[in-house]
Amino acid sequence: MSALNKLPSVQDSVWRGVTANLSDQYQPGSIHIWHAASSCSDHIGVTDTFLDKKKHRTLFNIKCYNGKPIKNHSHYAKENELILPPGTCIRVISQSNPADNLHIIACQEVDLSPAEMNAIASSVAMPGHIPKNASIFYLFWLDPNVNKSQENVKTQEKLRKLFDGDFEAFEKEEQCVFSIRQKKTDKIMLVVSGQMGQQILPKIHCSTSLTSVKGIITHQNELIKEVEQEKTIQTRKTSKNDTAAPPVNTPISGYEKQKLLPLEEALKPVESIIEDLQKYVWTVKNNAKESSHDGLTHDESASIMLYTMDCGEASLYIQLNRALRGEQRSEIKSWLPYLKLFMTALRKLPSFQGVAWRVVPQNVKDQYKKGERGVWWNVSSMTTDPQVLEMFIQEPGPRSVFTVECKNGKDIGQHSYYSAENEVMLMPGFYYEVTSVFQPAHEMHLISLKEIDAPW
């Protein structure tokens, strides 16, 4: 333990395998303490090599933040081994059964108080060069009542405009701590008050990303003024240290300059492309609602709902992504007014940080090599619940299952046409690194991606 304690703690998404079916013991929402040291790897293929493929096997995909990398001290350096120290607590997020004898359990490391640990101690279970991107300044607001008063909701709207999307509000301490730990190179100001501040500060005091912790228990207008002043100070510091990068043209460049229009007007340039578009617009406008919870207008909510609606070949998401993947810039110009409304809506939503899933009914493994980086310019719909995909995963024929470790996914569950699917959206420009490519079953490939900061 003395040796492990001297190693740096890292945040990573790692894998651990057991030759057994542990799905009954690891139900979503359950918490487990692993009292033994747990050997993991960030390469799923390494993990599965040690399992008997003729028997039931369980693969754990663990989002950890106190892992100890032992690559430089291991006899098998190529395995990228990481140790989870004894006493690691994990919460099960989801589970799936993508093949007859394969079970995948997604979980994340959590902090528990001594009382909480004692309460569950009886449930022990076995367990190319990229330039450095400039830092971003975030504002986090932690308050159990942050969404429960009209005044707080209005204040959120003002802060969200001030920070242009780099603002998140949390009701739960655990979610806030997790988000702070994800921001390695960014600047953060945390607004918190009272007893909750006393609880959270010991857990985040060593975070290098935290530049300022403000205890503001006063009027809302004073809160906004104080935050604005701090943002100005941090912006000046950043401008002195960073050299402005030249603008980068992307497939969606120019949408920001578009005027924000109602949904019907934003879609006029593409009416000829989508049959019965007016009918679909009428449907979502009658189902979508203005949201005081996250600040979306009626039209912004409807723009997301329309994207998620499945209308066969006439589906908006099919036509939009076809244009985004196209080689001709002219194909996307007609979509810019809609993208302005759609992207404005997505940026208002809280960011999802965790593992999301997606299945593609074809073998695309040759397009993804471990260690390579790439970008998805299309809009990508994912789910946080792999059980939603099981009916597609278990269909015969080639299929590729993506597990994506997100930092900035957008939880659209409240605005999706299919709200029960736990849907998360990856916005155009999703930049990733391939962490592993693995074939766990016949005609099925599991491709793991990790979201990283884009170089533009």
TrEMBL record:
**Do you know which InterPro entries this protein is assigned to?**
ADP-ribosyltransferase_ARG (IPR050999), ART (IPR000768)
Q: Which family does it belong to?
A: Belongs to the Arg-specific ADP-ribosyltransferase family.
Question: Which species does the entry assign this protein to?
Answer: Adineta steineri
Catalytic reactions of this protein: L-arginyl-[protein] + NAD(+) = N(omega)-(ADP-D-ribosyl)-L-arginyl-[protein] + nicotinamide + H(+)
GO MF entry, a single one:
NAD+ poly-ADP-ribosyltransferase activity
**Where is the protein found, in the record's own terms?**
Secreted
The cellular component terms of Gene Ontology attached to this UniProt record, alphabetical and capped at eight, are: extracellular region
Q: What SUPFAM superfamilies has UniProt attached to this entry?
A: ADP-ribosylation
Q: Does the keyword tRNA processing apply?
A: no
One matching Pfam family: ART
Q: What is its EC number?
A: 2.4.2.31
Keywords annotated in UniProt: Glycosyltransferase, NAD, NADP, Nucleotidyltransferase, Secreted, Toxin, Transferase, Virulence
Q: Which domain of life is it from?
A: Eukaryota
Which interval of the chain is the signal sequence? none
Region annotation Disordered: where it falls in the sequence: 229-251
**Protein name as catalogued:** NAD(P)(+)--arginine ADP-ribosyltransferase
Q: What is the lineage of its organism?
A: Eukaryota, Metazoa, Spiralia, Gnathifera, Rotifera
